[in-house]
Amino acid sequence: QSLGHASTVDAYPKYYTELNDDAGESEDTTNGYPDQKKGTIKTMFQEILLKATSSSTNGTNYATDDRIFSNLFSLFFVLAGIFGDLLIIRICLTCAYIFMLPFQILMNGYKENYAWIAACIYLHGSTVVRLIINEGKVKLDEKQEQEALWRYFYRLSGISRLLFKSHIAKCFELVDAKAGEKLNTNEYFYIILDGKVDIKTSFNGSNNEYTLVSGESFDVKHLKPLFRVRGAYLQGENQRNYFVEHDLIATVSPTANAKLYRCSSESMHELCNKVETKDASQGLLISTLYETSERLRLNGRSSVHDNIHIRSAIFDPLEDFEQPAPYLAGSGSLSGFHHQILHTLKASFLLPWPLMTWVPGLRQIGSLPFPAQAPPAVAYEKKDDEKDALSKPLLTSSMSSYNEV
User: Fold this and answer.
1) How far apart are the C-alpha atoms of 145 and 166, rounded to whole Å?
2) Residue 112: phi, psi to the nearest 5?
3) What pLDDT does 30 receive?
4) Distance CA 261, CA 267 (A)
5) Can you tell me the distance from the alpha carbon of 92 to that of 98, in angstroms, rounded to the nearest whole number?
6) Closest Cα partner for 46 from 2, 102, 101, 100?
7) Neighbour tally for 114: CB within 10 Å
8) How confident is the model at residue 355 (pLDDT cuts 50, 70, 90)?
9) What is the mean pLDDT of residues 8-27?
């Protein structure tokens, strides 16, 4: 009985009995503890753990202290608080609960503890698996030429293939338009893949005509959620916005058919308001505004683009220098996943103050909505669709529920 107290008997009944037998006591001391039954699964696990962690001195086996497992799961809990990346945090928590399981077995913890530990291992472990799968190669629809469309958005904003497939690809469809066909610019936003489109615009009595080619997009009014707030702080006629209120007629050039990606106005508004696609929408807005302003500067159809009949290089396969680094999240490459883990460990390592300088705004990135539009100082007559759009919240339903929580 040199091991001492009752907790030792509870933890190691078999070995406690052996020590008493060596001292001449033939009774089974486990009989005094009805909770301990020889041959149970718990006892079997205890014996396996004790054999794996035991050391031999003078022919007598002494169980290694449970401090090994206690220190291990405590270490991983600490690491979960040091790193800021979701994948690393989940890996640390999974390991912590895995090492907590043998600790509970050795300590004969309460039965409900095993259920909680198993639930935590499943919760965090399944998340680790899902996050790792998300870093794999993402296959896009070849018939809809989604690969070319992703390269277009990637070059504008750097969006990953997974986010593109999950949020953007399903909103765009590839359509074939015949030469001379008039396009519905009131309900759709277009990106030209092949061919040319003749554009006529009018605003406040001013008319413009020009031709758009592969790689260019229209109509910018469908990106209204990204810049409409500005109008609330202008007065009278100055409040009117050319990009939102101009009349635009788009017709496929009579010389050849065209292929275009199109997205409905409602889906375009949703993409503009989603946190996941905000960068892509802003990149598209900047590109479209640049093209529009360049056309206004040219002030007419005479342009070097009029003689271009080939697909824009923005849809071409990525050059080596354009490929996303394999150590970055969203690169779509599991071949260098160990480099990604090492890079993430280094990039997300953050000790508390005063050991390291705290990074401001960790939880605030993408957490706030666009500010609501104030009532105009001098209202002008709006169309019915504009009134409906202003009455709707700027956020999508998913983000609205997030902010309500």
Assistant:
1) 16
2) -65, -20
3) 44
4) 13
5) 10
6) 102
7) 14
8) confident
9) 45
Rounded CA-CA distance 200/298 in Å is 14
Nearest to 174 by CA among 199, 194, 196, 197: 194
> Which ranges of 146-217 does DSSP label H, i.e. alpha helix?
146-157, 161-163
In the numeric block, which tokens belong to residue 255?
């010389």
Name residue 252's amino acid. V
Question: Rounded to an integer, what distance in angstroms lies between the CA atom of residue 159 and that of residue 34?
Answer: 62
Question: Chain-wide mean pLDDT for the chain?
Answer: 75
Decide if pLDDT at 231 tops 80.
no
What mean pLDDT do residues 337-351 have? Answer: 84
Res. 130: pLDDT tops 60: yes
CA distance 94 to 123: 8
Residue for token digits 């809809």? 144
Query: 248-290 pLDDT, tens per residue?
Result: 899 999 988 999 999 999 999 999 988 889 889 999 999 988 8
For 247, residues 6+ apart whose C-beta sits below 8 A from its C-beta are 201, 202, 203
Report d(CA 243, CA 181) in Å as an integer.
Answer: 23
Residue 117 confidence (pLDDT) above 90: yes
Within 8 A by CB and 6+ apart from 116, the residues are none
For residue 177, the Cα-to-chain-centroid distance in whole angstroms is 35
Backbone angles phi, psi at 366, to 5 degrees: 70, 15
CA-nearest of 190, 199, 212 to 265 is 190
**Tokens describing residue 13:** 């009944």
Q: H or E element: which one contains 222? A: none
Distance in angstroms (rounded) separating the CA atoms of residues 11 and 109: 9
Closest CA to 389 of 228, 201, 233, 271: 228
β-pair type (258-264, 172-177): antiparallel
What does DSSP assign to residue 378? S
* Token pair listed for 98: 């895995």
Q: How far apart are alpha carbons 325 and 337 in whole angstroms?
A: 11
CA 187 vs CA 171, 262, 281: distances in Å: 13, 10, 18
Site of tokens 């939102």:
244
Q: Tokens representing 243? A: 């990009």
Distance from C-alpha of 281 to C-alpha of 273, rounded to nearest angstrom: 9
Inter-residue contact 183 to 190 (CB < 8 Å): yes
The pTM score is 0.69
